[in-house]
Design goal:
Elements: H1 3-12, H2 15-24, H3 29-36, H4 44-62, H5 76-83, H6 90-111, H7 118-123, H8 131-143, H9 156-181, H10 183-186, E1 195-197, E2 200-206, E3 215-220, E4 226-231, H11 232-265, H12 267-292, E5 299-301, E6 306-311, H13 314-319, E7 326-330, E8 336-340, H14 347-362, E9 374-376, E10 380-384, H15 397-416, E11 425-430, H16 438-454, E12 458-462, H17 466-474, E13 478-486, E14 491-498, H18 506-512, H19 517-526, H20 529-611, H21 615-636, E15 642-643, E16 653-656, E17 661-665, E18 674-679, E19 682-687, E20 691-694, E21 727-730, H22 736-753, E22 757-761, H23 768-779, E23 783-788, E24 798-803
Parallel strand pairs: 5-9, 8-12, 8-13, 10-11, 11-12, 21-22
Antiparallel strand pairs: 1-2, 2-4, 3-4, 6-7, 13-14, 15-20, 16-17, 16-20, 17-18, 18-19, 22-24, 23-24
Length: about 800
Amino acid sequence: MSESFFAKSAAVLEWDRVIDTLAGLARSAMGAERCRALVLETEVESATARMRETTEMAALSEEGDPFPSVSFADVRGALLRAAKGAGLEPVDLRDISVALGIGADVTAFLSRRQDRVPALCEAAARLEPIGELRQLKVAIDRAVDAEGNIRESATPDLRRLSQHAHDLKQRMRDRLAVILESRRYAEVLQERYFAQREGRYVVPIKAEMRGRIPGIVHDVSASGATVFLEPRELVELNNSIKVAELEVDREVRRILRELSTAVAEQEPGIERVLDVLADFDCLAAKAALSRLVKGKPVSLNDDGRIDLRRARHPLLVLSREHVVPNDLQLDETLRALVISGPNTGGKTVTLKTVGLFALMVRAGLHVSCAPDSEMAVFPDIFADIGDPQDLARDLSSFSAHMTQMIGLLRHAGDSAAESGGTPKTLVLLDELVTSTDPTEGAALAEALLVELTRQNLKVVVTTHYNALKLLAQTTPGFANASLEFDVSTLSPTYRLIMGVPGGSSAIEIAGRLGLDDDILEHALKLIKREDRLLEQVLEDLQEKQRRLHQDEETIAGLKSEAEESAREAREIADRLRASEREEKKGMKRKLTEDLLRARAEVQAILEELKRDRTLIKAKEAKRQLAEVDARVSARVGPAMETVPVEQLDAGGRVEIGGLGTTGVLLEAAKGKRRVRVRVGDREISVAVSQLLGLSPGEGEPHRVHRASVPSRSAIELPARLETDEALIVDLRGKTAEDALDETIKALDRAATGGLPWIRLIHGHGTGRLKTTLRDYLKSSPYVARFRPGDKTEGGDGVTIVELR
C-alpha cells in the first residue's frame, strides 16, 4: 500500500497519539527518536519476536527486578566531530563515558538473567564486551570527572602545572591582602576588595585618584566613579600567573586531543552501543506503555484470524477510569463484519480499536485485551473514518470517499494475486457510502462490500443500511454485529454483540435529546412499514440479547459463589479429617491401655483356672469374664463385626492382636497353631491365638477393636509360643515414648503367648529410658515383679520382667 494511503489511515486511527505517548515514556532523546520511528513488521515471526522482547521487559518490572535506567545523552554529533578530527570538550567525553558505562551495566544485568530473558539477551548481542571500549572509558574517567571537568590529576604534567599556577595565585592573594591594608592605598581605594579583569588581578581605585598609583587600567565601572587598576608592583606576578595558566591550558588541550583521537578510532563501536541503548530505551518505553494501557501479549497469526477478548481502546484506557470491554471474533471463514447500532453507540471506537491493535502488534506493543486473545498480522491497513472532504480540490464528502475507495480497489487488485488466499489487508470503513441518496447509497455500498471481499480483503464496516445488515445475515463469509442500545434508558451501553444486527434508534435518541414529541410522531409515520417492523425486530433482538447477557453475568456470579463454597467445604472437610485423625490417634493409646488391662485380668483368671480346675472356679471365672466383657463394651462401644479366624480361608482379612494392624491370611487357620500372614509387602508367621477374623469390608489399619478381648465363651487356655525362651526386647537408641510403646506390645505378645517373663535391654545412657520403663512396669497389670539383670544377664542395663 502506498505511503499516502498508510499515512491517511494511521492519521484517522490516531496512531500518532499512541506514538507520542510512547516517545514521552523514553528516557533519552535517541530512545524517543526510536519510538517515533517504530518499525512495523510485516511477518508473524518478526512481529512475535518484537512482542516477546516487550513481554520480557515488562515481566522484569512486574517481578521487582527493573531493567537498568537507559538515560544517556545523544553524542552522535560529538562522534561526528571527532571523526572529522575536531577536539571534543570534557562534557562530550563525560557523556560518551556514561553511555559506555550504561552499555556495560546492561550487559552485566542480562548475563545474570539469560534463562529468564533470552529475547532481550539476543537484542543485546551487539553489546558484547570490547576491550578497546573498556580501555577508552577508563582513560576518559581518569581525565574527566562526573561534572564534565578535567581532573588536575589527569597526567603528572597537568598536576605539576596546576600546582604551580595555584602557588602563584596564592602569592598574588597574599600581596593583594597587604595592598588592601596599607596606608598608601587607604585614600585611593573605592572599597577594600580585589577583582579579576581579563584574567589579571586588579583593585578598585577612585577615578579621581588613579594618577596617584602607577599601573594599568583594565576596566571602568558603569558610573565612571571606579577604575579597575593593576598596580605596577603586581604586573610581573600577573604575567607569571598568565603564563602558568596558558601552560595548564596547553596540557589540557593536549589531553583532550588524545582522548578525541581515541574516540574517533572507536567511533563505530560507540555508535553500536548508542544504537543498542536506544533500542532498549524504546523497549523500556513499550513496557511502561503496556502498564499504562493494561496491555497484554497476544498470539499472532497470518491467517487473517481476529479473536479479541475484553478489548478496550488503548487511548480511552489512558484517559478514563472505566472502559467497557468487548469481544470481537472474525475467524478464517469470515471476510466481512458489518457493525450496526445507534449513533454515539461506539461503532467508530470499535473500528479504531481493531485498527490500532493491528498496528500495535506489528510494532511489538502489548494491546489492551485479555491474554488469551489472538490477532492477525496485516501488512496493509486501510481506514476510511470521518469526513475526508477536500474543499481545495473541490471534493465533497461523497466524492472524497469514492476517490479513496477507487484507490483501494486498484491496490487490492494488485496485491490479491500475492496473498495466496490469505487476507493481507485490513480494511476499516466507517459508514460506507454516505452523503448521497439512501437507496442508491445502499446499493452502491453493497456492491462495494461484495467486491472488497472478493478481492480477498478483511473488512470491518459500520453502517445504518438495512441492506448491508441483510447481506451479512444471509451471505457466507459475512457476519453481523451491533452495539447494544438499552431501550429502558434510551442510552447506548457500548457493548458489542456478535451475530446480531442493530437498529439505528435515531428517533429514540432524538427524543432523549429533547426533540419535540410532535416531530417524533410525524417521523414515525413517515417511516415505511417494513423498515419500522425491521427496526422493531432489531430492538427486540437487542433487548433479548441484553437480558441474556445479564443472565450470563448472574450465572457466572452464582458459579463463582458455588465454586468458592465448594472450596470452603473442601477445606472444612480436610480440617475435620485431620482433627478426626488426631482424635483417633489419642483414643488409640487410651483404648490400648484399657484393653491391655482387660487382657491381664483375663490372663489372671485363666492362670487361676490352670491351678484349680473345679466347676466352682470355672463358674466364677465365667462370671468374672462377663464383667470384663461388659466393662470393655461400655468403654469401647459397639464392636466391629468379627468372625472366628478358624472360619477364614486363605485371602481372609485378620487383625493381629496386640499390634493393632491388619493383614491377609496366606493359608487357612483351621487346625493350625501358627499361620502365615501378609502385612503390607511383608510376610510374617503369627500364632492363631493372636488373630481376629474380620468381616468383608472391615479392617482399617491401626485400629483397635473391642473384639480383641476374648469373649465369655473363650475360656480355653491360650497356646504358648513355640519357644520357652524369654521374649527379648532391644530398646537401645529409641526415644522413651517409642520404647514404652514397644514394651507394651511385648508384654501383650508375651501374655497371650504364655511366656513367664521378658527381658528388656535399655542400656545405661542418661538413665531416663530405664526410669521411664520401670515407672510404667510398677503399674502394669501384666507385671508380677521386675528386677535389674545380674552380671551374666547384662547388669543394670537390662530389666527382667516376670509376668503374672
